[in-house]
Amino acid sequence: GELVGARLIAHAGSLVNLAKHPASTIQILGAEKALFRAIRTKHDTPKYGLLYHASIVGQATPKTKGKISRSLAAKCALCIRMDALGDQETATIGLQHKEALDKRVKFLENNLTPSMLSGKRPGAYQRPAQTGMYNPASDATNKIEVPAKRARIEEVEDESEESEEEVKPKKKKH
Does the global pTM surpass 0.70? Predict the structure, then answer.
């Protein structure tokens, strides 16, 4: 509602400052004290702050209040950014989001599937009619040149022994 929006703007300082906040921050705005207490004591963080006073969250069942609050915060963040930075004068996006939230509440409280909400039934998976054959000529491994085999370990050890004999350490004079 308007009162919750006004409280959010007052808490953030201005509409532009509120538009800079992510949805997760908007969700717990007003519950900072509880958030930091929860972090300090390693308990669960709060699910809602000022958004708890919104009618859609208040009407939800206790089981779904956190999910509704998260959805409301996401939609609020989009609307706030449109208000602060957009050129639109009408509230069409807000009304669309209100309808989407009402569907979400119905979905969560009645344990419906998304296809039941839309009225459409998902169709069965259809395989593509034509399947491509594998073309070995387009394989990248055919174009790679194989390097010559390495010298055997025994040959390398023989060479290192010969080089050690050539270089003799000099004695130090005292």
Answer: no
